[in-house]
Write a structure and sequence with these properties.
Layout (H helix, E strand, L loop, with lengths): L4 H4 L6 H7 L9 H16 L15 H11 L6 H19 L7 H6 L5
């Protein structure tokens, strides 16, 4: 099956690029999408969430509790798999929300942001 032009532009995106691109979305993802990305990001960087003996579940702020729960929900997923899933989710977010690309002399010479 031939690869579409849209699919071709995503080749080569890695975890670090995907994380940076999430800051450039034109619209804000839903809270559930944000939480899913957060959990994957934390799992990719740190692995499993520490036990409550070391990392107490927050109880003062509902949003922080939800972020904690998002990370806890994927406990056991390997860091490599979390990175792969994060990249896939980021690609879907870019397709869904688009992204803002700010061109400047510096980033046009150093970075290529069209994947």
């Amino acid at each position: 099956m031939p690869i579409s032009e849209l699919e071709k532009k995503w080749w080569g995106m890695n975890f670090n690029i995907a994380a940076e691109e999430m800051r450039r979305l034109k619209e804000t993802p839903s809270e559930e999408e944000q939480l899913a990305l957060y959990g994957l990001y934390k799992q990719a960087l740190h692995g499993d969430i520490p036990s409550e003996d070391l990392y107490i579940r927050p109880n003062s702020d509902i949003w922080i509790q939800r972020k904690y729960d998002a990370w806890l929900a994927i406990k056991g997923k390997s860091q490599e798999r979390a990175k792969e899933d994060y990249v896939q989710a980021a690609q879907e977010m870019i397709k869904k929300y688009g992204r803002t690309i700010v061109r400047s002399q510096w980033n046009s010479q150093v970075w290529t942001v069209d994947y």
